[in-house]
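From: lab user (bench 3)
To: helpdesk
Subject: output format question, protein + aspartic acid

Hello, I'm new to running complex predictions and I'm not sure whether the block I got back is the full result or only part of it. Here's what I submitted:
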Amino acid sequence: MKPRIRILSTGGTLGMLPGEPGTLAPSAVSDNVLQYMRGLEAEVELSAEGLWNLDSSDMGPEHWTRLAEAIAARLDDVDGLVVLHGTDTMAWTAAALSFALRGLPKAVVLTGAQRPIAWVRTDARNNVVHSALCAGMAIPEVTVFFGRWLFRGNRVTKTSIQSYEAFESPNCPPILEMGVEVQAGEVPRAAQGPFVVDARFDSRVAVLPVVPGSDGATLDQAVAAGMRGVVVQGFGAGNMPQRGWPQAIARATNAGVAVVVHSQCLRGHVQLGSYEGGRAALDAGGMSAAWMTLEAATVKLMHGLGRGLEGAALAEFYTTDLVGEGA
Ligand code: ASP
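Helpdesk reply: Thanks, we reran it on our side. This is the complete output you should expect:
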């Protein structure tokens, strides 16, 4: 029996066509991708559906919620799902879905393209074909297929604007490499448990880079602006100037605003005990992003706050590895 795979389209370059001179704009192609997939029906039983048709920069937490609910509503009728998505925020949506669909019993593969599917020279067909095949392989988690790799969805980040290999998974090997042969990586299965759909996200979360010589005033401003959570991107292992930043973190946490410390580095993990600045941030109530990507660290904070967690309960939730995100 061929696996039953449903394609859910949300837009992105894959389905775009030229709009204003020099720009690409969403088109009806997005809803008609099956016509470009000839031959794939020999391997999988394919169906497709357009959910919406947006540049992914225009997607946000409300779309993550709707998408999670749409996926959950279709799971019983398929063996796997492929979500067509713009590349710009695909890593964010993949992270959000991984938290919203804990214990996912089937495969959900996100993919997109750097060039439209309607163009002769396109990476879209390669990405969609491989995503559909991966979705039929009973890998029950949210993943991203791009270029030649199937990645854990909450571990990817977009690292190239022009390359066909636009995504990397800096701290977790690919689940599969789809070359001439299919090679499996050493990726431990994400924690399994009962399937729970909880797609609540609080969008009042900011990301603030630490700049040399800064004193945390931007964090005070974020708190004053009504943010409920802030991800501070420190240096290296989570370090920051000792004058100003730890004090601002203490003011924020005392005001009930959750603070996570991330890093400006792509590889490696945050270790707040490594240097005095990071240690002071930890003592002030900052939570470590550990191995998480910036996208996963931020979305997990949005999710924890969306679930109504705060204080010690939020810290416990945040620092527990829930779906292989690397907390
Ligand atoms: N701007 C597009 C989007 O994210 C880029 C792409 O799909 O590659 O929707």
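A quick orientation on your result: Residues 205-318 form a domain with the Rossmann fold fold (CATH 3.40.50.40). Let us know if anything else is unclear.
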